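User: Fold this; tokens only.

Assistant: Input:
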Amino acid sequence: MRFISMFALAALAAATVHAQEHKHASPGATCVDQEKRFGFRGFKHCEYHQLYQTAFKGWNCHCYAGQCRPTEFRVAPVTDKNPTGLEVYLNGLWFPIPEAAMRKERAHMPGQLLQWMAHGCANDPVLSDDKKTIITPPHIECVWINTGS
């Protein structure tokens, strides 16, 4: 019985998070950006949600609620784990940009989004309890980098 109660509480918590993440998808609902940290999931997402729907859909990116956010990228050494030689800043950490996720085309990028160095669409990494070790890196669906051309 105790297991069922813990399971029920976990399911309720997951449903609540799911509902909060999709709050802006409901007709008439108001989306409010609550994340203030640059590069973190939810940062400026509500403000740019409709623009992301246009831009990322044009590149066949399949992002989920709150995953798209302004961020930055940097050049890194090319390695087996980072064949693009580029990294994206997500949730306070740097991650290699997968080749399949990289976008550079400006054609689908609305002007309001061009002010940022990059935009990323990814889930959150799974971190250890002390937040110092990456257990599972994020799945990076798309990263648009502003090459200026």
